[in-house]
Design goal:
Elements: E1 21-22, E2 24-26, E3 29-31, E4 39-43, E5 48-53, H1 58-76, H2 81-97, H3 99-110, H4 114-135, E6 149-150, E7 153-157, H5 163-176, E8 180-184, H6 191-202, E9 210-212, H7 217-225, E10 231-235, H8 238-248, E11 254-258, E12 264-267, H9 273-285, E13 297-301, H10 305-316, H11 337-352, E14 356-359, E15 374-377, H12 384-387, E16 394-400, H13 403-410, E17 418-422, H14 426-435, E18 440-443, E19 462-463, H15 468-473, E20 476-477
Parallel strand pairs: 1-5, 7-8, 7-10, 8-9, 10-11, 12-13, 12-17, 13-16, 15-16, 17-18
Antiparallel strand pairs: 2-3, 4-5, 6-20, 11-19, 14-15
Helix pairs in contact: 2-4, 3-4, 4-5, 9-10
Bound molecules: nicotinamide-adenine-dinucleotide and magnesium ion (MG).
Residues 157-161, 184, 186-187, 216-217, 220-221, 224, 235-237, 240, 243, 258-260, 292, 342, 389, 391 line the site of nicotinamide-adenine-dinucleotide.
Length: 482
């Protein structure tokens, strides 16, 4: 252990102003829900209630879709791309100006460390709007096909792991292409989406272009089922993704689904091992492991397995787990009691299956939802902890001998969202990347994101891409009108 202790370095929450209750953002203003049961969102690090939020009913969703349709036909689809771009630039600038406020609110509502909200979520959210602002007047030159046109009203349902960032991934390309939006944030993390409503007003975005409705699965389902929706964009669990695909089969609705993952982070014996350890930490302990593309399976070449095990555990013992508002914190709170229970259940399964469990042994706060960084070794491919998404700070270690075996094991899950390769051989990186059935493959790094780089999955990780030129394709129709 280090002889030095970190003094507390708490971020102030004075910069945010949380209302005691929130309505729905429809047609450019906050309105009361027509019924529904209001619910509370809590700070998962303290269990303190932050605010009461409305549950949008089917009628509220209908009102939001109509507002989006009106804004689409009267204003947004008629506006020039250059003018739409100005609004997106404005939103990006406001997000930058209010970054601290958003980062603090995200950390309070989600439980992620403030240094991640501040240095990852917020800069990337703003970058997404800047990037798509640039495309708004250049769609004719994006090789999307002849005469690209918007689809209409887009329904968007997002998860709780990157609340504002997932909102940005959804709203920025939709608006750049001339669509209007009805978006539902996750029930445990609605506050930054509700604050984004304020940004829309500050940017003078025409009313109804962005509508935000809160609620849980039933509200999401009402969006999915609404006949006035032209396209759905969903990020979340594979189970709900499959249900959405079934619900819209036979309709003319389009959909993109960004679902779960079980990424392999593959460490060869020629890799710079300390850098690989940092890559593993970033791959699975970033954001408490609540990351769809998390490197939740380490595949390590057998002859360095013992050394890697030793260095990894030594490093994990230095991770600071605790108060997310402390600027020194590395691993924050698990987002909800429900998610904590899911993680505990999967970890119990791993032990019952005979894998060897280790955790960092760090102290945990008494209130709130917490889980220690955990490593399973002696994991075999048939173990559930090698196949199923845990979505927490838990990594499974498997070994391999040859590159071909690494590929076979890496591809042996129902998922295919991402993968990582650690080796000094460029030719091996290229060969492996070609063989891996994963939408994103990182080499000698992990969890790097850029709005210009398309992101999405193979197999049960979903379909469609977000980001880059490819991400625009999901938001336009091209060719003959009909
Ligand atoms: P979820 O799929 O239930 O929730 C994601 C979003 O979908 C939320 O906004 C939720 O309200 C909404 N939703 C739920 N049921 C719906 C329905 N029938 N129709 C429309 N929308 C609906 O995910 P969860 O329960 O929060 O998490 C469960 C598991 O999902 C996690 O353990 C993790 O494995 C996975 N997950 C993946 C991601 C990802 O980024 N791919 C994000 C969150 C969770
Ligand atoms: Mg919350």
């Amino acid at each position: 252990m280090s002889p030095f202790e970190y003094a507390p370095a708490p971020e102030s929450r004075a910069v945010v102003d949380i209302a005691s209750s929130y309505g729905l953002f429809i047609g450019g203003e906050f309105v009361e829900a027509t019924g529904g049961t209001p619910f509370k969102t809590v700070n998962p690090a303290t269990e303190e209630v932050l605010a009461e939020v409305s549950e949008a009913t089917d009628d509220d969703v209908d009102t939001a879709v109509r507002a989006a349709r009106t804004a689409y036909t009267r204003v947004w689809s008629r506006m020039s791309g250059a003018d739409r771009g100005k609004y997106l630039f404005r939103i990006a600038r406001i997000l930058q100006e209010r970054a601290r406020e958003f980062a603090v609110l995200e950390t309070l509502d989600n439980g992620k460390p403030i240094k991640e909200a501040r240095d990852v979520d917020l800069p990337l959210a703003a970058a997404h709007f800047f990037y798509h602002a640039g495309w708004a007047d250049k769609l004719d030159h994006a090789s999307l096909g002849p005469d690209p046109r918007p689809l209409g009203v887009v329904g968007q349902v997002i998860p709780w792991n990157f609340p504002l960032l997932m909102l940005s991934w959804k709203i920025a390309p939709a608006l750049a292409c001339g669509n209007t939006v009805v978006l539902k944030p996750a029930e445990t993390t609605p506050l930054t989406a509700l604050l984004f409503a304020d940004v829309c007003r500050q940017a003078d975005l025409p009313p109804g272009v962005v509508n935000i409705v809160t609620g849980a699965g039933a509200t999401g389902q009402a969006i999915v089922d609404h006949p006035g929706i032209d396209k759905l964009a969903f990020t979340g669990s594979t189970a709900v993704g499959k249900m959405i695909a079934r619900s819209i089969a036979g309709t003319r609705k389009k959909a993109t689904l960004e679902l779960g993952g079980k990424a392999a982070n593959i460490i060869f014996d020629d890799a710079p091992i300390d850098q690989a350890v940092e890559g593993i930490v970033n791959g699975i302990f970033f954001n408490q492991g609540h990351v769809c593309c998390a490197g939740s399976r380490i595949l390590v070449q057998e002859n360095i397995a013992e050394e890697l095990d030793h260095r990894l555990k030594r490093r994990l013992a230095t991770l600071r787990v605790g108060d997310p508002m402390d600027k020194n914190t590395d691993v924050g709170a698990i987002n909800s009691r429900k998610q904590l229970e899911r993680i505990e259940e999967m970890v119990a399964v791993g032990e019952a299956e005979g894998a060897e469990r280790w955790d960092s042994g760090c102290d945990l706060p008494t209130n709130g939802f917490w889980f220690r960084p955990t490593v399973f070794s002696g994991v075999s491919q048939t173990h559930r902890i090698a196949q199923e998404e845990i979505f927490g700070p838990v990594v499974s270690v498997l070994t391999f001998r040859t590159p071909a075996e690494a590929v076979a094991k890496a591809n042996n899950t129902p998922y295919g969202l991402s993968a990582g390769i650690w080796t000094e051989k460029g030719s091996r990186i290229l060969w492996m990347a070609d063989q891996l059935r994963a939408g994103v493959v990182w080499a000698n790094t992990f969890n790097k994101f850029d709005p210009s780089s398309p992101f999405g999955g193979y197999k049960e990780s979903g379909y469609g891409r977000e980001g880059g030129r490819h991400g625009l394709e999901a938001y336009v129709t091209t060719g003959g009108r009909g």
